[in-house]
Amino acid sequence: MAVASFVLAIVAIIIALASAGYTRRQAVASESVTAIEAKRLHVDLTPELAITCTAPPGTDIRQADMTLELTGPAGLDELDEVTVRIRDDMPDRKPRPGSQLTQEQISEVIWGPYRLNPAVRGTDSLGRKHGPFRLPKREPYPLPLEQSMAPSWTSPDQWRDQYQGKPVRLEITCHREGHEPWILRQEAAVKPDPPTHVW
Predict the structure, then answer these.
(1) CB under 8 Å to 162, separation ≥6 — which residues?
(2) Which CATH code of 1.10.10, 2.40.50, 2.60.40, 2.40.160 fits the domain covering 47-192?
(3) Can you tell me the distance from the alpha carbon of 54 to that of 191, in angstroms, rounded to the nearest whole number?
């Protein structure tokens, strides 16, 4: 009788362990499915931004007006916080061997045709970054641009020629409560503003 009770106890322990293992596997599988669904939803809700850049007539492309507009997707009606950063033409630029330039000097240069206007509230002093700001859907957000500053080791004319016709390279970080942030890398070509006709 004692042996039978012992065997039954062992069987009960084995069943309990198997049941716990099954429950654990079910929980892991459920977490995995939930994570996959959350990732799919995050991808489905990736913000769609329309970006336009125009140069007003008579400015010799030294200034431009950039506009960001949230146009989609259907399930996203606004972004709580958006931060815009100007990217360089080459990421992680380093001093060349034998160069007298320091990494700090190189990092302070915006290697591209335009910078954000530093006089605009919410923009850093280099004109590299602006934000955060709220962006409701279908409400264009204006961001004035100005020609990037030529570094001291080159002339303004050479600098302008180097980036003539090149696009503005952007990194846009978008936040919406309850979601992981989206980081979008986009380019925007600067086009002349079409003249307005008075009839």
Answers:
(1) none
(2) 2.60.40
(3) 5
168-175 vs 141-147, strand pairing mode: unpaired
Enter the tokens of residue 56: 């007003």
Peptide bond into 132 cis (omega under 30): yes
* Sole residue written with tokens 């934000």: 131
pTM beyond 0.85: no
Quote the tokens at residue 171: 């990194």
How far is the CA of 43 from the CAs of 38, 81, 178, 181, in angstroms? 9, 18, 14, 11
How many Å from the N-terminal Cα to the C-terminal Cα in the chain?
A: 109
Task: Please state, in angstroms and rounded to a whole number, the distance separating the CA atoms of residues 123 and 130.
Answer: 4
- Give the tens place of pLDDT for each residue, 121-163: 999 999 999 999 999 999 999 999 999 999 988 899 999 899 9
Write down the residue that tokens 């950039």 correspond to: 66
Residue 110 DSSP label: -
Q: On the CB side of 117, how many CA atoms lie within 13 Å of its CA?
A: 13
